[in-house]
Design goal:
This protein is an all-alpha fold. It is 50% helix and 2% strand.
């Protein structure tokens, strides 16, 4: 009887110690890592980057390096910012860090699969994980993620959260941040990304080690078309002006000096032949004005509309 009591007592003490340790582990998210510093200070190496470096070292890839180029949000194409919001967290500006509807759907999918696969994480949650935590999906890590997400939302503006996320998100093996991804995949800066390039970068975020934004994956192509279509419907992209920007430059080719046929004043511009007995001045007045009219808007105005959909620079929601 005494032995049974002692065993029960030790088990109780063990459970209490374990419970206390778990509480301390989770509660530490309230105190370590000064989130408020991120208002003005850019993070250097994130916890997720360190995790990748440990993986490389374990595999013997000692010469592999992190490729990241930090850029402010103002130097990122507004198409890219909007495409990523549509693909990853379409309610970003409406929620306070958690999309409970998306989380519920993710839980239902996980139950059907019998494993933890879908997270339903917002951009704020993803940022908390990337900055401070490991990529494991155990419940304790998820609890810390929720605390850190709450702290991010209460210390940083939405604009700042988005800016940091776009600069630390993984886009390939060792490729972190949208500027590095844009240079690696498209050979241009993030400011120059087209709407379709932005859509392709957005849809590979869930699995950047397996999906390539410039590849021929049917998944990437289909998802990118969906994101692009949403941008068009919302007026973020105006296709007519995108076509104008893709068209070859107007104007005649340089004069080669070759003889021109009658009625030609240059290599490409036709001049109507004079009518017998009609003075030049009358003929000019009678001829309809065939000058091309410019579109009511320009491609630059379409871009400005996309930029206007981003939040103001001022801190705050």
């Amino acid at each position: 009887m005494d032995l049974l009591k002692k065993t029960a007592r030790y088990l109780l003490i063990g459970v209490m110690l374990l419970g206390g340790a778990l509480i301390v582990y989770v509660a530490s998210a309230f105190f370590y890592d000064d989130v408020s510093e991120l208002k003005k200070k850019n993070p250097t190496k994130t916890a997720f980057m360190t995790h990748r470096e440990i993986q490389w070292e374990f595999k013997g890839l000692k010469n592999k390096k992190i490729y990241q180029v930090w850029v402010p949000l103002a130097k990122i194409s507004p198409y890219a910012a909007k495409a990523i919001l549509i693909a990853e967290d379409d309610k970003f500006y409406a929620h306070e860090g958690f999309d409970f509807e998306a989380m519920q759907k993710a839980v239902e999918k996980d139950i059907k699969l019998g494993k933890l696969k879908y997270g339903g994480s917002t951009i704020s949650q993803q940022l908390a994980k990337n900055l401070f935590l490991s990529p494991s999906k155990n419940p304790l890590r998820k609890a810390k993620e929720m605390i850190l997400t709450w702290r991010l939302e209460n210390n940083l503006s939405k604009r700042r959260i988005l800016e940091i996320y776009l600069n630390v998100a993984e886009w390939g093996d060792g490729i972190f941040g949208i500027e590095a991804a844009s240079r690696h995949y498209f050979g241009k800066s993030a400011a120059e990304l087209t709407p379709m390039e932005a859509a392709r970068l957005a849809v590979v975020l869930p699995n950047p080690l397996k999906l390539n934004p410039t590849g021929t994956s049917k998944y990437v192509e289909k998802r990118a078309e969906i994101v692009y279509g949403i941008m068009v419907r919302r007026g973020i992209v105006i296709e007519e002006f995108e076509d104008i920007m893709k068209a070859p430059p107007d104007g005649p080719p340089p004069d080669s000096g070759a003889p021109r046929p009658p009625g030609m004043t240059s290599g490409t511009v036709d001049v109507a032949e004079k009518k017998d007995g009609v003075p030049d001045r009358q003929q000019t007045a009678a001829a309809p004005d065939k000058r091309e009219t410019t579109p009511p808007q320009s491609a630059e105005k379409a871009r400005e509309k996309a930029e206007a959909l981003l939040p103001a620079t001022k801190e705050g929601r």
